Amino acid sequence: MACAGSNYTPGALVEAFHRIPHVDINLNTSTDAFSVSLNYFQAVIIWACIPILVCVCLFILMSVYFILICCCCCCGVERGKSNTSRWACAVLQAIFMLFCLALAGASFWAEVALHTDITSVISSTNSISNVVSSASLEAVKFNQSTNTMALTRIQTAAYGNSNATSASINLISYGNQLNTEFESISGTLGSLWDAGFSSSLDVLETARHWAVIGYFILVSIVLVIILIASLVRKVPFVVVMLVILFFTTLLTWIAVGGSLATLMVTSDICHNPNTVVLEISSSPQTEYYLNCNSTCPAQTNPFSNQIGSINTANINIRTQLGYILSNQTLVNLVAVDLSTTQAQFTIAQNASQNLIALTGCTPINKDYTEARQSLCNDAILHAVVQFGLVATLAVCLIVQLFCGGFHAGLISGPSDDEEIILDPFGDLAAGGVSSTNAWNYRSNTARSNPESIPLNDQPPKYSDLTGGNGNHRTSGGYDHFNA
């Protein structure tokens, strides 16, 4: 019964993420087999929180670093920064931001491919739902075609003819038998598969897909705004840029955690998908459809008893109709009713053939195999690619936030074009009265043209102070200064 189960082997990606240690909140090893239980999802939630905790720790370290840098700069002498350095930082930020935009675009492509794979899974589950619905439809079709009144009139007309009377009674009995078997098969198939599951899965996937698409569009818009702000080189723009970048980075790391959790759950499901399905719907019929295929002809259809009863009933119906049709007198009396009865059982035979085909191995097993292929091979590959791209984007945004802090520091202070320096002769030049001139504004023009500096660069000589004879001057101004 398990010959087809060996046809599926988990891929390398499934095995890699399935081997991630599963631990609960107490750091005890928990089960790595997928199950809808708190014990299982504790490990998933813990791993989803790890990227978020890493991001928070990086934010804290970055904040401490910038606080220390700020304190050092405030306590020390202000140093100039060249415009060349500022423009170089802005250009590097712009290039790095373009790289982040490329990552966001690649992640967008991965999301589209992943959505296509999941849509294929949903399409396969819809096909299974259609098989179940078709089985129920065949049963309803037979019930709607049943006309016991016609059989009753045939039985009344056949009174006195033992063969015809017995045949009409048997027709009613076999018709009821067909109806019972039809309802049994359709009811069992309906219990194996919830038709609403596919619809719910479709709604969830649509919401997930558009949420992810909206996130990547938002990230792209934010990156463009930050790119423009970094080139403007104005402090308010850069501050706004850093605030927006902070929340975008945090959101990206949350997305990394969610992506990792999704990969863990998917790999655990795909490690042994048959077991997961059997836990949800455990029955001989479910096991048959999961494992059967054309290479396992010895597998027994669990509906074989019902199918045998349907075939027997159809054979008996044809036999009983033959008894009635052999009595020409009876045929002349109930020609209309007999025509109705023949049409009714023709529908029954067609419905029987369709139902037997639906209960065979091929329809449901084929759809299940396609769903498993789309989920455990194609979807998980694109999910891993998307996880890698989003994780790289998250790291790049952290680096970009760090560089943005340096950029804000570069443009917040004076440059070499506007440097305030200490002039030791400012008080003397002002007659020794004012202390407000102890700082002298110097420009690059003054630095390149020393004659335009209003004060001498050289300190006075001792002879100048003593009048050349070694005696201190007690009167007169210090007219050696070009005040």
Radius of gyration: 43 Å
Shape: elongated
Share in helix: over 70%
Mean pLDDT: 74
- Helix-strand pattern, N to C? HHHHHHHHHHHHHEHEHH
Backbone structural class: mainly alpha
Tally of extended strands? Answer: 2
Largest sheet: 2 strands, antiparallel
Give the CA-CA distance, first to last residue: 108 Å
Q: Proportion of β residues?
A: under 5%
Low-confidence stretches: 74-80, 413-457, 472-483
Order of adjacent strands in the largest pleated sheet:
1-2
The total count of helices amounts to 16
Structural overview:
There is one protein chain. By secondary structure, the protein is an all-alpha fold. It has a two-stranded antiparallel ribbon with strand order 1-2. It is elongated and about 115 Å long. The termini are far apart.
Pick out its properties.
483 residues, mainly alpha, two-stranded antiparallel ribbon, 74% helix, elongated, disordered C terminus
Give a short synopsis of this structure.
The chain is mainly alpha-helical and 483 residues long. It has 16 helices and 2 strands.
Topology:
Elements: H1 12-18, H2 38-75, H3 83-145, H4 148-157, H5 162-192, H6 195-232, H7 235-271, H8 273-280, H9 284-291, H10 304-325, H11 328-333, H12 335-358, H13 361-412, E1 419-422, H14 426-429, E2 439-442, H15 444-448, H16 462-466
Antiparallel strand pairs: 1-2
Helix pairs in contact: 1-7, 2-7, 3-5, 3-6, 3-12, 3-13, 4-5, 4-12, 5-10, 5-12, 6-7, 7-13, 9-13, 10-12
